[in-house]
């Protein structure tokens, strides 16, 4: 198969979909890999690194799209890429369709095959291609939150770990999945007092067993959220419903119950956000203030640490890319239930329930496109 790796053109996205090591694994299996010039530079990988791994370098993004049967990306295509995508071309990337209708309709119009990293799902309901970036984002949520709690950055002026004689910072984490678990671990490691909320009692039991003593588990409901936001210095939104829009757990009226200078980090922003007042921001302009509460809502947080993120992402996606390249997407999805669940939009039809429900679109049976 001919595989194309374009340079990410979303604002301040420094990751790349494939490392030279990943390119080598594909080329040694007989596949052709074409990488856009400087696509890996932001992650610390130069064109000559890819060429040494057997890949070929193309000068423009159009060249890559024109050549490739399968496109591997990190972020969803943006408007400038829509017309480059061909009918029947396989796109393997993060899409987060349910949070952005124009993208969904553009991919329907393109009649491409859109296989979303974030909905590839294992039998235990874990999301193997979302996990590595969720781990990065969860840890970064505390790193960034701690920075913006500093007074010069607009926060309350709280040191999360405190010092002897001074109470440590209070961190509230909404969601006990991968993002929330990593955020709680990082916050606890800094010495903060942490509350982590979830609606799954079995998950809360697990977290209560594995977390250090400065992490408490609390069942998530509106009453409890309203209670704990009053004392929180840093609140992390870490709620995910695979392939669907995140629910608003913190509403606009709740901001008035928080301390001035409280920091909100909404990791779910690329799925619509679990904080009503969130809107996507960028690394160059990451924050805004509403009702004296500072919001950090960068939609591609792992893009700030691209060397770590790119390697972690390739480690996860490469086994699936090898299946898709070796068998073709139809056979690979017939033989792999996790890959089949990654199909969202196929040849002009929506085949993933969460996307169809988000925009009241017809839902077609996914098995029909595999015949």
TrEMBL record:
GO annotation, biological process: L-alanine catabolic process
Q: Which InterPro entries match?
A: Ala_DH, Ala_DH/PNT_CS2, AlaDH/PNT_N, AlaDH/PNT_NAD(H)-bd, NAD(P)-bd_dom_sf
Q: Where does substrate bind?
A: 15, 75
The protein's Enzyme Commission number: 1.4.1.1
Q: Which residues form the Alanine dehydrogenase/pyridine nucleotide transhydrogenase N-terminal domain?
A: 4-137
| Organism superkingdom | Bacteria
Q: Which UniProt keywords apply?
A: NAD, Nucleotide-binding, Oxidoreductase
Give the Gene Ontology MF terms in alphabetical order: alanine dehydrogenase activity; nucleotide binding
Amino-acid positions noted as binding NAD(+) in the UniProt annotation, renumbered to this chain: 134, 198, 203, 220, 239-240, 267-270, 279, 298-301
Catalytic activity field? L-alanine + NAD(+) + H2O = pyruvate + NH4(+) + NADH + H(+)
Q: Which residue range or ranges hold the Alanine dehydrogenase/pyridine nucleotide transhydrogenase NAD(H)-binding domain? A: 149-297
Among Gene3D superfamilies, the record links this protein to: NAD(P)-binding Rossmann-like Domain
Q: Record's Gene Ontology CC terms? A: plasma membrane
* Active site per the UniProt annotation: 96, 270
Q: Which family does it belong to?
A: Belongs to the AlaDH/PNT family.
The name on file for this protein is Alanine dehydrogenase
Q: Please tell me the species this chain comes from.
A: Flavilitoribacter nigricans (strain ATCC 23147 / DSM 23189 / NBRC 102662 / NCIMB 1420 / SS-2)
- Whichever gene encodes this chain, its name is ald
